[in-house]
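The methods section describes the discrete structure representation at length, but only in general terms. What matters is that the chain and its backbone geometry are given together, residue for residue. Nothing conveys this as quickly as seeing an actual entry. For illustration, here is how one protein appears when written out as sequence plus structure tokens:
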Amino acid sequence: MGLFDFAANLGKKLFGKDDDPAEKIKQQIEADNPGIKDLDVSFDDGKVVLSGNADSAEALEKTVLIAGNVQGVSEVTADAVTAPQQQAKVEYYTIESGDTLSAIAKRFLGKASDYPKIFEANREVIKDPNLIYPGQKIRIPLD
């Protein structure tokens, strides 16, 4: 899947200085259960490397976003994750100050009322459609 860049100073605070970041990120991914098996996570100086087997390309994308939307993570690489080929057309978007899911839906999907499509495509990444933050990366389903 390649390399994704993230804003290291933004995101969900998941670990402190005495925690094992790789283990905390792995626990978060497994708790949200996007559909990845045999998951292994390594963390070094803000860089996360994922390996395992994804049930779908969507599961792989969600896994990368869950890992990347953690405070302290600047890059995520998932080249070692096997996944089926992506069939759906997807775009990635970084939330900006003042954004709402409705505004993003209007911009990408043509109607603000289509915001539930974006929320559903990111359910493991966005827990509440009213709680998004600048710097957070999400998937935009274009099909």
About this structure: The chain has a mean pLDDT of 93.
